[in-house]
Backbone:
């Protein structure tokens, strides 16, 4: 029966479980705090007048950096745990089907879609291959690099014999010296900043242009498909 | 040479009576919290223990370590050299020269095999078969290997011996390498700094003689007691850092008030040394106290780590030198512009598609 109102049948799949969604937003917040405070540790705010005892600005900035780092670290460890106990999509973040041909052909298709060479993207319940690759490289590998270099730098103030020193103190002579570790940690921040820009843009764009939901999925957990075609 | 002289003999020679010596032994036992019976043990140790022979070799270096060493105040360097150790070979301080001097090396090696301490100032260059540093007609690297073969332990004086320092800085034409790259089978104590603090140098020696063992070393082989913390951790300007009070420019108000030199590129936060506690020249001052940032002279490869006057220093990888902040801001700006352009292109495409869909709908009806 033709009613004059266009009807589109939408299917939905539950992808992101509640703990994954909470982790995503907590992680987003901690990364934002880490990037801002981290930049201010590298390039501090203009000097303050008066007595040193009147202020604790740098101390607070560093405190928030370390607090957010702990949140990021605990979140990261939790996310690894959840990859084991969560649904089948939850371990995408830690696994890359590197040897599967289809992954690379689909990745190429996705790149062509962004280059306006394909009329429409394919549908994916989990991450699309391009997003999948970026997530593994930036969030998992990049996150790990930031955790390791960050804790190595943290060990410098917790001191010899502290747990960050016992576990990550070796990183400093491994990389060179303290200043090298600082600079690599700083480069890592810029890589993540650029990733976040791309991530936010593509999430919004895909939500509008692709055949599936993106932003609402990370809020509700349900992936909605806009059409029934394969 | 009277290298077998014991501590007791030295004390007697300096006019201390046996009675005073025994009193000293009892007092030491009490001070160390030992039972009274240990006074005898201490007396016996001091009567029988010979002074440790020390050989001090000089490789590729500027002698700033020796210059620093002879200014030690606690203990006085004269006490160290004349009473505590038996400095049998040191081409800067010894009286003999030429073949006489070189003969001492062989004598010590044979007579005190496995007993003497080898202190090395400077490092061996390996290029051109080591010809860039010749001692007594032979490459220094040969002398170093020979003397190290029979020593008890090696002390690497200064950043040259510990890390390589200026002669090993890029491009290192003579291929100068730190001592631990050449001597791999002996315990090595690194005492880095350009030069190291005098009291740190004599302190390390005093510790080794008093306790007859190596000081506790960190991961990189430096004595924990002097290199366990960063200059920043004990800096008297640290409160200004925590408060966010920085020198922004040389001779500004902050510089006059003694604010933190972090923004001027002070490497105190990345440098492990005792400058902020021990200070220099009998505790008179240290670089930060005189208004200049730390340049990180006791850190590995400090010549090649970018400017002494930037906090965010350039990173040099694969021959490309770049500053994280400059590249990062440029990259973020470029990506931002690319996103805007891509978004605009996407919007245009979508409008076109929509228009196409409308046409199709119109065609159907």
Residues:
């Amino acid at each position: 029966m033709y009613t004059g109102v266009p009807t589109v049948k939408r299917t939905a799949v539950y992808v992101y479980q509640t703990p994954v969604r909470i982790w995503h937003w907590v992680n987003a917040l901690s990364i934002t705090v880490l990037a801002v405070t981290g930049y201010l540790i590298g390039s501090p705010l203009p000097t303050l007048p008066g007595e040193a005892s009147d202020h604790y600005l740098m101390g607070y900035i560093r405190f928030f950096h370390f607090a957010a780092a702990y949140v990021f670290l605990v979140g990261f460890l939790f996310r690894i745990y959840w990859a084991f106990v969560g649904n089948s999509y939850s371990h995408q973040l830690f696994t890359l089907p590197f040897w599967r041909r289809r992954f690379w052909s689909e990745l190429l298709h996705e790149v062509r879609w962004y280059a306006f060479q394909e009329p429409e993207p394919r549908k994916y319940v989990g991450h699309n291959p391009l997003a999948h690759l970026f997530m593994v490289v930036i969030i998992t590998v990049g996150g790990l690099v930031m955790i390791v270099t960050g804790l190595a730098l943290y060990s410098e103030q917790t001191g010899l014999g502290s747990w960050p020193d016992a576990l990550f103190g070796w990183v400093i002579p491994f990389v060179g010296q303290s200043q090298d570790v600082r600079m690599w940690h700083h480069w890592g921040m810029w890589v993540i900043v650029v990733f976040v820009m791309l991530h936010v843009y593509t999430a919004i764009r895909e939500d509008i242009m692709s055949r599936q939901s993106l932003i609402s999925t990370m809020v509700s957990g349900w992936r909605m498909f806009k059409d029934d075609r394969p | 040479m009277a290298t077998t002289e014991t501590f007791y003999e030295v004390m007697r020679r300096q006019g201390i009576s046996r009675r005073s010596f025994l009193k000293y032994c009892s007092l030491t036992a009490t001070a160390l919290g030992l039972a009274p019976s240990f006074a005898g043990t201490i007396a016996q140790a001091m009567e029988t223990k010979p002074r440790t022979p020390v050989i001090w070799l000089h490789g590729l270096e500027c002698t700033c370590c020796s210059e620093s060493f002879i200014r030690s105040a606690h203990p006085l360097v004269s006490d160290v050299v004349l009473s505590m150790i038996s400095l049998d070979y040191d081409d800067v301080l010894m009286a003999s020269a030429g073949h006489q001097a070189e003969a001492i090396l062989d004598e010590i090696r044979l007579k005190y095999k496995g007993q003497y301490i080898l202190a090395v100032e400077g490092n061996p260059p390996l290029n051109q078969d080591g010809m860039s540093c010749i001692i007594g007609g032979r490459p220094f690297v040969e002398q170093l290997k020979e003397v190290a073969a029979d020593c008890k332990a090696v002390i690497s004086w200064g950043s040259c011996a510990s890390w390589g320092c200026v002669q090993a800085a890029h491009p290192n034409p003579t291929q100068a390498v730190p001592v631990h790259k050449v001597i791999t089978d002996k315990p090595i104590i690194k005492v880095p700094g350009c030069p190291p603090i005098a009291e740190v140098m004599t302190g390390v020696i005093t510790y080794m003689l008093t306790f007859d063992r190596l000081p506790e070393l960190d991961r990189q082989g430096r004595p924990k007691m002097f290199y366990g913390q960063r200059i920043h951790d004990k800096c008297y300007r640290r409160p200004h850092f925590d408060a966010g009070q920085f020198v922004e420019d040389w001779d500004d108000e902050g510089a006059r008030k003694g604010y933190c030199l972090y923004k001027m590129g002070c490497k105190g936060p990345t440098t492990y040394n005792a400058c902020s506690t021990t200070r220099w020249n009998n505790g008179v001052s240290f670089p930060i106290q005189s208004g200049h940032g730390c340049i990180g002279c006791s850190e590995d490869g400090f010549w090649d780590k970018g400017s002494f006057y930037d906090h965010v220093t350039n990173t040099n990888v694969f021959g490309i030198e770049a500053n994280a902040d400059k590249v990062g801001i440029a990259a973020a700006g470029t990506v931002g512009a690319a996103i805007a352009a891509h978004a605009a292109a996407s919007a245009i495409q979508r409008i076109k598609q929509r228009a196409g869909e409308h046409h199709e709908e119109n065609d159907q009806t």
